[in-house]
Amino acid sequence: MSNTASGKNLRINGERLWQSLMEMAKIGATEKGGVCRLALTDLDRQGRDLFVRWCKEAGCTVSVDRMGNIFARRPGRDNSLPPIGTGSHLDSQPTGGKFDGVYGVLAGLEVIRTLNDMNYETAAPVEVVVWTNEEGSRFAPAMVASGVFAGVFDEEYGLTRKDLDGKTMGEELQRIGYAGDLPVGGRKFGAFFEAHIEQGPILEAEQKTIGIVQGAQGQRWYEITMTGQEAHAGPTPMRRRKDALLGASRIVHEVNRIGLAHQPYACATVGLMQVSPNSRNTIPGKVFFTVDFRHPDDATLSKMDAELRACASRIAEEIGLQLQLEQIWYSPPVAFDKACVSAVQSGAETLGYENMPIISGAGHDSCYIARVAPTAMVFVPCADGISHNEVESATPRDIAAGCNVLLQAMIARANA
Ligand code: GLV
Ligand code: MN
Ligand code: MN
Ligand code: MN
Fold first, then answer.
1. Where in this chain does the record put each Peptidase M20 dimerisation domain (predicted)?
2. Ligand 1 binding pocket includes 143 (Cβ within 6 Å)
3. How confident is the model at residue 251 (pLDDT cuts 50, 70, 90)?
4. What atom of ligand 1 comes closest to residue 100's alpha carbon?
């Protein structure tokens, strides 16, 4: 029954993978063709349930850890070997697309379905993983459950992350039935691979089908609260005001300036802001907002940090505001494992796909998994480099190509 050939002739079923992606995209589908499936909502549960059903139909054993990470396992010839893992996330941004995360999960499932079709037995087992709350959109920070898995955060920290309504990840995991009983982490992978859309414009511009991901840039996330004084918009003279929104907007401008000052790589974003009391004829007394800084070089990221702190203090002082600035997350730049990167490269070469090395601009669960397992990623292009947007799109051809590369890399490592 076992097929012991090298597996180089195996090809995934692109049509089946595409259909599965479109089926999953119905869960939380938005009018503009995107997806809203925030972490640990009822829609996230529906997505997880569908994934688990498909995995069981493919003969996998499914288990869930206490952070809600799901592991679907296909046995190998020697089940004492650590599995070769792959996977990504099923949660999305509030106005997300059909591919960010989901592609990496369903590409993993497609690898298993293909191995089944071909009756191909790998030496090591193969596992597909869904990591909980990669996006960090409902519960900050991003990659929190893969972070607990990798020992970056402790479990208590992970389970007590709160959304803006004060609900914790722990409560929401219980509510949707995905607070599993496996301990988090300590599970060895022989190697880990993640397929993902690039989420940027480089592969498309260079007309390459496959990005061989060498590593990922570092990130620092901040939460800033500026407090001034609420007062009437009519009787309060301009010079007497302590307008918290004025302070926040000046920081937004500085954040952009800092990003531009560290080109070609820096990225600097204010993506969330809450103004209180948010009334048109009251001077804003309090503003809460976030900053997201990224750079592939850690020293530059530190410089950006120092610049933000300096300008925020100066602005707060000039307007007479109280400043609370907290770095809530730091994820250093990551270099992926050389042998895994070359397994991805060989897969792309074997299949004859145009490819190039690339550094990930986005954060991925693999950035943390790289601390506990040899890890690499496969990127495919997305239209106009747009992601975190409902119009996010990728071609069936590229989606299939990335999955074929994933299959080759996984087979090579599973039989190594
Ligand atoms: C999440 O998708 C991130 O990269 O910020
Ligand atoms: Mn993603
Ligand atoms: Mn994302
Ligand atoms: Mn991401």
1. 216-317
2. no
3. very high
4. 2
Architecture of domain 14-217+333-414: 3-Layer(aba) Sandwich (3.40)
Minimum-distance ligand 1 atom for the alpha carbon of 101: 2
Question: For the chain, which residues make up each domain, given as ranges?
Answer: 14-217+333-414, 218-331
Q: Which residues surround ligand 4, an ion (CB under 5 A)?
A: 362-363
Ligand 1 close to Cβ of residue 363 (< 6 A): yes
pTM listed for this prediction: 0.95
- Give the pLDDT confidence of 200-222 residue by residue, as tens digits: 999 999 999 999 999 999 999 99
Dihedral over Cα of 401, 403, 406, 412: its sign: negative
Q: What is the CA(322)–ligand 3 centre distance, in A?
A: 33
CA of 89 to the centre of ligand 2 (A): 7
Angle among Cα 328, 330, 335 to the nearest 5 degrees reads 160
Strand (E) positions, 38-168? 61-64, 70-74, 84-88, 126-130
Look up tokens 């059909």; give the residue. 98
First to last CA, the chain: 20
CA of 355 to the centre of ligand 3 (A): 23
Tokens of 325: 């600035």
Instruction: Determine whether 75 is exposed, middle or buried from the number of CB atoms within 10 Å of its CB (0-12, 13-18, 19+).
Output: middle
Of the pLDDT bands very low, low, confident and very high (cuts 50, 70, 90), residue 2 is: very low
pLDDT tens-digit series, residues 217-247: 999 999 999 999 999 999 999 999 999 999 9
* CB-ligand 1 contact for 142 (6 Å cutoff): yes
Q: Mention every residue, 6+ apart, whose C-beta is less than 8 A from residue 215.
A: 296, 333, 334, 335, 336, 359, 360
Does 218-331 match 14-217+333-414 at the fold level?
no
- Report whether 322 contacts 305 (CB < 8 A): no
CA-CA distance, 322 to 312, in Å (whole number)?
10
Contact 216, 367 (CB under 8 A): yes
Q: What are the angstrom distances between the C-alpha of 131 and each of 134, 239, 369?
A: 7, 51, 10
Q: Does the structural domain 218-331 have CATH classification 3.30.70.360?
A: yes
Which tokens belong to 44? 């996230």
